[in-house]
Amino acid sequence: MTGLQQIRLLTFELPMAIDRAAEFEKEALPHVASLLRYAMHIDRRGKAEAEDLVQETLLAAWRNFGQFEAGTNCKAWLFRILINLRYKQLRRTSRKAEVPLAEEEPNLSRPENISRNAEMRAAFARLSPEHREVMQLGVVEGFEIREIGEMLRIPPGTVMSRLSRARGQLRTALQAVRPSPKETL
To answer: Which of 18, 71, 86, 159 has its CA at a distance of 20 to 30 angstroms from the CA of residue 92?
Structure first.
């Protein structure tokens, strides 16, 4: 059974007014792919754990859908829930410190998440976690500066600064890798 099928079954198991259930399916379920992509970005343990995080996010959204204000950005609301749940997971696991045996390659450096260009992947992987996060939300997921700030609970000016610095670092890294036109002649 796929995650989407499980979500649809969930909509019939938990009580909610029929019109709100349809609204939830219409508003929230189209964002499952984006939620999963971002969950894989912030939860580097693997796809199964990212899917679990998305499922927990949708369950929390379902339970609290009465708090969602119709006409507002449901995607941003769902991402805020996902981020809060991830922070909660991190707090719980930090109490039980685990030492990984081998460092895994960050999910952000996967070709399907950034580009097929190896230099771009490598440059993106070298960004700080804060810079990667705003780039992922702003460039890959398409959120606005204000929305990113609300999700990460940082001022919009900080978001703009991080985006600008991340773009500059990427530009510098890529220019250092690629020879200038004069060198190729």
So the answer is: 159
Question: pLDDT (tens digit, 9 = 90+) per residue, 130-180?
Answer: 898 899 888 888 889 999 999 899 999 999 999 999 999 888 888 876 655
DSSP 8-state secondary structure symbol assigned to residue 179: P
Question: In which residue are the tokens 């702003």 written?
Answer: 138
Q: What letter would DSSP give residue 66?
A: G
DSSP secondary structure string, 94-159?
HHS----SSPPPPGGGSTTTS-S-HHHHHHHHHS-HHHHHHHIIIIIS---HHHHHHHHT--HHHH
CB-based contact 39:53 (threshold 8 Å)? yes
Q: Is the pTM of this model over 0.70?
A: no
Cα distances (angstroms) measured from residue 96 to each of 31, 42, 92, 102, 141: 32, 19, 7, 18, 32
- Structural domains in the chain, sorted by start: 3-95 (1.10.1740.10), 108-178 (1.10.10.10)
Q: pLDDT tens, 61-91?
A: 999 888 888 888 999 999 999 989 988 888 8
Cα 125 to Cα 53: distance, rounded to the nearest angstrom: 23
